[in-house]
Each structure stands twice: as C-alpha cells, then as structure tokens.
Design brief:
Layout: E1 11-12, H1 27-36, E2 41-47, H2 67-80, E3 86-93, H3 100-107, E4 114-117, H4 138-153, E5 159-160, H5 172-188, E6 193-196, H6 197-201, H7 209-218, E7 221-225, H8 237-250, E8 253-254
Parallel strand pairs: 1-2, 2-3, 3-4, 4-5, 6-7, 7-8
Helix pairs in contact: 4-5, 5-7, 7-8
Length: 261
C-alpha cells in the first residue's frame, strides 16, 4: 500500500453519458462538476455499443450509430477544456468471447484511449446471465471469474470495473476460492481492480468486504471509479473518503487513478 494515500479525489476514468439510456446530464455538466471539485483528470467511459447478431438489442448501452457523436462531442470538449482539465475518451465494455473480434474491428476506427472491463453479463449476454442478481450457483461464480480473467488476458482493457459485481451469496469458502483466483490472475497481468463509488453511495452489494479482503491479501493494484451517471456524482469527496477507508482496512495497494494512462 502507498505510504501516503491520495486523500482528495483528483481523477476518475469511469463516467457515463445520456447515450447509455440510464444516465443524465450533458458531457459539459460532468466536466464542470469535476472542475468544481478541483479534479485534474476526467475519463468518459460510457457503455460501449456492441455488435450483436440477429437483431439483439441491449437497452443499457448506446447504439452503434451513436458512437460517432459520442467521440466527436468529447473531442471538441477535450480541446476546449485542455488548459483546465485532462479529458480522456474511453468505453466500459464486457468481454463477450464470440463477439470480441467483430467488436474490436468496429471500434478500431475511433480515437478511443482506453476500455474498462465491466462484466455485467456472462457468456455473450444474449445467451448468458446477469451478474448482479443474488445467486448460490457455484457455476455462475465460476463463469464470471473465468470470463473476467480471459477478458483481462486479451490486453484490451485498462482495468476491471466493480470486480465484485457477481452477487454470490452461497458458501464463503467457495467465494474465496474463485475470487482469489481472479485476484491472483489479474495481479499477474498488472490489471487494476476498481473500488466502485456508485456501489458505495447507492448501498449496493458491492464493494463486497470479502472480496477486498482477498484483494488486500493478494496485493492487487487498486483504483477507484466514480461510475457517475449524473453530473453531481463525478466528484464525490465523502464517498471517496469511504473508499479510502476500505483501502486502509484491507491494506490495499492503491495506485491512484491519475497514473493509469
């Protein structure tokens, strides 16, 4: 763990836009909120459009034809605000094994700076299961962990968002077995794990203390992410302070988001 923690939130790489159909506010409002808080770095990572087959529609992400407007808008704002804050353009994206090749071909034409791995579904979404519903099914936990590790191993992702998203409520020893493997394998890859600030302030099942105890024991690199869906959630001093409490409690190897790129 760093000897001196970053006590003030100065950066996040996890913020959304209205294009994902479940966030609010304009990009400019997110930037102004970050500036008001004295932040130095703001990365946008809206839910990536995915090239699904057979007309499948995913209602929590932007459509493929909206990506151009997303990037163009942020490029203009990046230039406008360049003397006041560093803006990065990325996406939050699942690793879907059967779809990744086509997906990366689609994305390579855009000036994206990073991708965050946020595994909201296992398998390929249309044939898999959501990660957030409570489950005692060990196979669901295994599928999630296998897929996160495989996705991280592609080299496509900057870090893993809310790695404790899979809501396993069964045997604690089973949870430890699989999540310890996730922590060990991502550490080998030097892929940071995110303490999700949305999960803290919204009282979700993550951050999961059992997971972060494992991450601390395994020495995983750790960052925080606002996961902002409203402009006033970009800069979250009180929630960030609670994340730093988690860092201290479990002896986490917090690396500081401003160093990510």
């Amino acid at each position: 763990m760093q000897e001196v923690l970053q006590e003030k939130q100065i950066a996040t790489f996890h913020a959304h836009t209205t294009r994902c159909h479940h966030a609010e506010g304009t990009e400019r409002e997110y930037i102004e909120s970050a500036l008001k808080g004295g932040m130095k770095v703001l990365g946008f990572s809206d839910h990536a459009p995915y090239m699904f087959p057979d007309g499948y529609y995913s209602n929590f992400r932007m459509e493929p034809d909206k990506l151009d407007g997303y990037v163009t808008t942020l490029e203009k704002l990046k230039e406008e605000y360049k003397d006041r804050i560093t803006i990065h353009i990325g996406l939050e994206m699942e690793y879907y094994p059967d779809l990744l090749k086509k997906q990366m071909e689609f994305l390579k034409g855009y000036p994206l700076e990073y991708l965050i791995l946020g595994q909201h579904f296992t398998k390929n979404e249309y044939d898999g299961a959501g990660s957030g519903a409570p489950t005692t099914d060990e196979s669901r936990l295994k599928d999630y962990v296998d897929q996160v590790i495989e996705g991280a191993s592609t080299g496509a992702f900057l870090y893993v968002a809310h790695p404790d998203l899979l809501n396993y409520v069964g045997d604690a020893a089973v949870y430890d077995k699989y999540m310890r493997r996730l922590c060990r394998e991502t550490k080998k890859l030097n892929i940071p794990l995110e303490i999700n600030l949305l999960g803290i302030w919204n009282g979700r099942h993550y951050p999961n203390p059992a997971f972060w105890q494992i991450a601390g024991q395994e020495g995983c690199p750790v960052v925080t992410g606002s996961d902002a869906h409203q402009p006033d959630k970009v800069y979250q001093p009180d929630t960030y302070a609670r994340a730093m409490d988690i860092v201290r409690k479990y002896g986490l190897n917090y690396i500081g988001e401003e160093e990510l790129l």
